[in-house]
Amino acid sequence: MLDYDEEADEYDATRGGEPRAAAAADAVLGLVPESAHSLLDVACGTGIVTRRLVAGRPGLRVTGADAAHGMARRAAARLPGAVVRSDSRQLPFADRSFDAVSVIWLLHLLADAGTVVAEAARVLRPGGVLVTTVDKAAAHHVDSDIDALTAPYCTERATDEAGLVTAYAADHGLLPSGTARFRGHGQGRTPRRLARYVRSGEIYAAGGTALAERIEALRDPDSPRPDPEFTLRAFRKP
User: Is position 73 within any domain?
Assistant: First the structure.
């Protein structure tokens, strides 16, 4: 897993910047009821999306939370007084504190994603909504030449697979309430960058050096393939 303290200063520039943040925030807000007065953005990272949530819904009180010091520091600069440093699996908030909780690009990183869903359910008020990304890895499969090479190595069930997340939500009384999709601007994979991740064992580890070399040998190794389309699922607390 990436060291998010080290990544903080360069994170936005390498993850689609403001266009991706705007697309994500718009999609999240489309699933948050207009009646919501407060939202907790779990794993808010640098706050680039969190700030857009604030700007996109006047009157919505938004709080950001992130476990990485570097990320929380960047977020706090964007949202003074509205960011706390916190583990998403043990939130420092009372039961029924928020009308909405957003969890963007987190569950795919965790072996215990269900714990995050449980905490979100705990801090939601009745009638509140959890909005989270699902199937992040699958979003990057865009029928490119990269996908043709890596398909045999996509064998493990993702921890943010939509069916799993829906089951976690049901375990805590949350009911499906909507779906949205948004484009990951600037997130198209390049062969050379992906090959580095394969060599490090971060992705498709079973392919090892041999797979990395085959990926690097693809045409235009520094040219991004099509952008992914990310999926959001919303769950309501009765």
Answer: yes
Asked if residue 133 lies in contact with residue 103, where contact means CB atoms within 8 angstroms, the answer is: yes
The answer for 3, left when phi > 0, alpha when psi is -120 to 50, beta otherwise, is: beta
8 Å CB contact between 136 and 161: no
pTM metric for this prediction = 0.90
DSSP symbol at 3: -
Q: Which residue has the tokens 């440093």?
A: 85
If you average pLDDT over residues 120-145, what whole number do you get? 96
Number of domains present in the structure of the chain: 1
Instruction: Give me the domain span that covers residue 97.
Output: 4-139+157-188+227-236
In a domain, 55, yes or no: yes
Classify each residue of 66-102 as buried b or exposed e, where b means 16 or more C-beta atoms within 10 Å of its C-beta.
Answer: bbbebbbbbbbebbeebbbbbebeebebeeebbbbbb
CATH of the domain at 80: 3.40.50.150
Predicted local confidence at residue 13, as pLDDT:
45
Helices 48-56 and 69-78 meet at what angle, rounded to 10?
30
| pLDDT confidence of residue 10 | 55
61 domain residue, yes or no? yes
In a domain, 49, yes or no: yes
Reported residue count of the chain is 238
